[in-house]
Design goal:
By secondary structure, the chain is an alpha+beta fold. It has four domains: 112 residues; 221 residues, no CATH class; 86 residues, Phosphorylase Kinase, domain 1; 114 residues, Transferase(Phosphotransferase) domain 1 (Transferase(Phosphotransferase), domain 1), CATH 1.10.510. Helix 3 runs antiparallel to helix 7, helix 4 packs antiparallel against helix 5 and helix 11 crosses helix 15.
Length: 634
């Protein structure tokens, strides 16, 4: 169907007649009064007032706990004398935890991460065979602390409105708190790459970087891009006027759904109680295809549009979850991960991000570079904007198609979804692949390393595997060392559009530990194994050197050693049994390069960051942490 015949957006007028966007999302730009110095004082949003009330409830509950500690201490003294089987020491530790948590709760600067929130859980043990009167007193103590803990959890669960959360002094604290969305702000809030969560995102990024094709939708994208570049660089009276201009120029470009702001939800209601709203392109049942946030100019309003979009998306996911049991389309969309585009119009700049929900965590990530909607005599900016619009058009159409495509596959939380199978190197057969979980905690490493399982479709037997996602990998070196029993078996790999390649290998058992772990807690007779480990390391190096290969990162955390139950190395032919892992930098000596950034805190790095990995570098690095290494004549 020609672009000119696409159905019009049914509620464009609705989106452009809802009034200032600041009144929709509770932005604190409405002035109610002035302080003693004559400065403007913003109205407090409904959410802020609710949080103030919850904060008072926390402090009141904390007072109740504080005033009871002395009584509880005496209660444990009585129990210790009359009920000798009771774990009084454990109970006193519990009281210490309670006391510390109450102190943390009084401090408004406390970061409530997973560890801190876990301290809200301990309770005093109440044995069934204890005297009834003592049981009642212990239960009352637990109830008093539970009231405090529930008040604290309620406060943490009451999140600011999108515009409030997106302010630097708010998000910098909120995003460090327990159970927040993953959007790379701060860097510790890192989710999986969007391209590994749904194929639409990988395709989107590929199309943004590709030459614009010659078809009716691409031509329409180029026309709309020219209109936006001719208008969005102008001065507007406010962000609402800028947003209306963007909407007029986009017109019926997407051809599905309708733009709306009628999305009443409690956290978005402003201080007057009027319904709040998120601006989004909706499909049936208020399912979003695109969420959009507009900013008058860069820096105006004091809120980060990207974070505001992320919070909008989090709220929409919550709404979809609440209706999933009643509406089949909502449930289907959620099973697909609720993939959505998040557009930020910041003055004349357009940024597109992606949103995804895996049933537990919300992940948001930028998908494009900032795109300037300003004219260019060479047509370059119009072309770049057209590529983004064309990719967005295709993504929205793909999202719409998901509503009628039931998904039977279930996925583990926090795992990729775009690698259903791979071709085994040993059999040449397509093999089913399932991810089960992260092998390395997300907060300790950026490595995308997972446990999983695979099986040939003709059998019912699943094999345990490790799966590594990486853009560059020395698979040839890995297979070569595996052929000498010096690396896990590499079963195969699978690529996905716009995503890292998944390399599937045998999963080493718990009897394999890194040499780093071994050296951090040596067995009592460790000295008797020094020569065996040295011989094993020499073997690894000699095998690599025989083919002029380099690994590039032979640190002790990338070499596994087989140990027994007492952590003593298991020997074979007088040598420690070793397996090398992590072949990201591996290849031919003098051809492959170190990454541009290396961990500068590590001593002994040969060569330089970004430089070539030369023959002899592996020996030099190993010798820096294992000085007993026999260098031989190499």
């Amino acid at each position: 169907m020609p672009a000119s015949q696409l159905p019009s957006l049914a509620t464009v007028s609705e989106a452009t007649s809802t009034g200032s966007k600041r009144s929709r999302d509770g932005e604190d730009d409405k002035v109610s009064n002035r302080d003693g110095d004559g400065n403007k004082v913003s109205k407090r949003s409904r959410v802020e007032k609710k949080r103030d009330g919850l904060r008072k409830a926390i402090l009141a509950a904390a007072d109740s706990v504080d005033t009871s500690f002395q009584v509880w201490g005496k209660l444990l003294d009585v129990i210790e004398g009359s009920f000798p089987n009771y774990d009084v020491r454990g109970a006193r530790i519990c009281l210490v935890i309670w006391e510390n948590v109450v102190v943390e709760a009084r401090n408004e600067n406390t970061v409530w991460d997973d560890r801190t929130c876990g301290l809200l859980q301990p309770r005093l043990l109440v044995p069934d065979d204890m005297d009834e009167y003592l049981k009642i007193l212990l239960e009352k103590a637990n109830a008093t602390y539970s009231a405090f803990a529930e008040a604290q959890i309620a406060y943490l669960s009451c999140r600011p409105s999108p515009s409030e959360l997106a302010k630097p002094n708010t998000w910098s604290k909120e995003q460090k708190t327990w159970d927040r969305f993953l959007c790379l702000r701060p860097a510790m809030r890192r989710g999986l790459p969007m391209s590994t969560l749904h194929t639409v995102f990988g395709t989107f990024q590929q199309e943004v970087d590709a030459t614009l094709p010659s078809n009716e939708h691409a031509n329409e994208a180029l026309r709309v891009a020219a209109l936006l570049c001719a208008s969005m660089g102008e001065s507007f009276r406010d962000e609402d006027a800028r947003g209306q201009m963007f909407l007029r120029k986009i017109g019926n470009f997407f051809g599905v759904g309708s733009w709306t702001t009628k999305f009443p939800i409690e956290p978005l209601a402003d201080s007057s109680g009027s319904p709040g709203g998120i601006l989004f392109l909706q499909f049936e049942e208020k399912i979003p295809g695109i969420i959009r946030e507009d900013k008058w100019e860069p820096g105006s309003g004091g809120s980060d549009a990207y974070l505001q979009c992320a919070r909008d998306y989090e709220l929409l996911v919550k709404y979809l979850n609440e209706g999933a049991g009643k509406f089949a389309m909502k449930e289907t969309f959620l099973r697909h991960g609720a993939p959505t585009l998040l557009m930020s119009v910041i003055g004349p700049i357009l940024i597109v991000a992606g949103g995804f929900y895996d049933g537990k965590s919300v992940t948001v990530e930028p998908l494009t570079r900032p795109c300037l909607m300003m004219e260019d005599d060479t047509g370059k900016r119009q072309q770049e904007l057209a590529q983004v619009l064309y990719a967005s058009f295709n993504a929205v159409r793909a999202f719409r198609g998901l509503l009628e495509t039931p998904l039977s596959t279930t996925y583990a939380f926090g795992t990729p979804r775009v690698y259903p199978s791979f071709c085994r190197l040993d059999t040449g057969r397509e093999t089913l692949l399932q991810f089960e979980g992260r092998l390395i905690p997300v907060d300790t490493s950026h490595h995308l390393l997972f446990s999983g399982k695979c099986r040939d479709p003709s059998t019912l037997t699943w094999d345990k595997v490790a799966i590594k996602l990486v853009m560059n990998y020395g698979s040839e070196v890995h297979r070569f060392l595996a052929g000498h029993n010096l690396a896990p078996i590499l079963y195969g790999s699978v690529a996905a559009v716009g995503a890292p390649t998944a390399y599937v290998m045998s999963l080493l058992g718990k009897e394999w530990i890194t040499l780093f772990d071994y050296r951090s807690r040596l067995p009592s007779d460790a000295s008797t194994f020094t020569n065996a480990i040295t011989a094993g390391l020499n073997k690894v190096l000699e095998v690599l050197e025989s083919k002029d290969y380099v690994h590039g990162d032979l640190r002790d955390n990338n070499i596994m050693i087989l140990v027994d139950a007492e952590r003593r190395p298991v020997l074979g032919a007088g040598q420690a049994q070793l397996r090398v892992i992590d072949f990201d930098w591996a290849g031919n000596a003098g051809e492959v390069q170190y990454p541009a950034q290396r961990n500068d805190s590590i001593e002994g790095w040969p060569g330089r960051a970004g430089g070539l990995i030369e023959a002899g570098h592996d020996r030099q690095l190993v010798k820096s942490w294992w000085p007993e290494l026999l260098l031989g004549q190499k």
